[in-house]
């Protein structure tokens, strides 16, 4: 007999273990391959021009299809979508690990993105409908937020260990046991609440417009990184993205059963979450990228030591999420956790702008990483919960997908945008100091560090902006009142304030 929203599923905490495991696998995959990429490139003879596609193929498929995946979860059932996503992800990972050439590897990465786009929103919306009591919800989202935030850094550690002691193929194969355990656990313990399924037909025009629009946007930033911002292809892609996404909004206003009901994003609080979270992820992904290169190239750390160097940030995230965020979420309004969280993270970023070619890890990098982790963990926690709080059960999948979309698109934009800024600053420094004499190798390293520092300054500014948006837009009280999501009454849900449109 299906559980009702008012009677919590007795196995929900066991279910959280398997949902968390699946989320960890998806988040890991965004960074684990980065460290393995040089080895894979040598092994398969991937050209420098095609190298970025190993990362981009995953980001494009994942970011472009997330809203579609969220709506499929609402239509088809979250548990079924979750299990299918896991099975497909495991299959794609097996293909990637067995790749014999560039095309097979890129195809496997795109396929991972497709199934990740089914899996991620199904996982978050299962949490949203299974945990409806405020304090329990805070604890569950604290654990989930820590995984979502810390998974990328864990990917760097695991990627370093697997690449150094086994080989790059294991960065793919490692997903298979994760997926099997999570799928088996889901089948055994997850019971999805019966109500809240969305029986409407799928909005095909909406799917096509938003998928091509998001793919164009992410690809435009990728091309800007390699071809420059003023290249005709880059400009064309940005224009195409704007037109397609504007057409998507028009279609969603008139279609009977929209892919993304505008009530989900036009709610002031949820809109504030999506926007501030997307900006924060832009800043954070840039940091991962530059610090990985800085530690390996400038300070000469091994891949494993680089991964270990990120551990204090993961510890900070887990502490911020489970000890600060989860404990205060039922007593403090979300904006008083999110805005200070982003500001604390920005102070960590500010410390990291001071890197030099011989900076001390304990004196400079360690405090910067700890503050980044603490701030992000504290902010991620209420953000993840608020994004699905009070949403109608039939929209839980698509509201969850929007959180993931803002993170994925933010990550892809952050990598490309900050990379371009860093490369320009490096070139400018090299040109300005070319005649100064001294060792060419030392100048090269100084230029690189100057480029990284410039990009981290931008990341600092973006995090301050994220804090400002969180404080200004988000005006709801603490999440300790009526049950969220599936537990709220229809009258409560209709009373959610929506911005005029």
Automatic annotation (TrEMBL):
Pfam families: MFS_1
Record keywords: Antibiotic resistance, Cell membrane, Membrane, Transmembrane, Transmembrane helix, Transport
Domain Major facilitator superfamily (MFS) profile: 15-479
Membrane topology according to the record: Multi-pass membrane protein
Membrane-spanning parts: 15-37, 52-70, 82-104, 110-129, 141-162, 168-190, 202-221, 233-251, 272-295, 301-324, 336-355, 361-384, 455-474
GO terms (BP aspect): response to antibiotic
Keyword match Transmembrane: yes
Compartments where found: Cell membrane
InterPro entries membership: EmrB-like, MFS, MFS_dom, MFS_trans_sf, Sugar_transporter_CS
A GO CC annotation given for this chain: plasma membrane
Keyword set includes Calcium: no
Molecular-function GO term, any one: transmembrane transporter activity
NCBIfam families named among the record's database cross-references: efflux_EmrB
Protein name: MFS transporter
Provenance organism: Kitasatospora indigofera
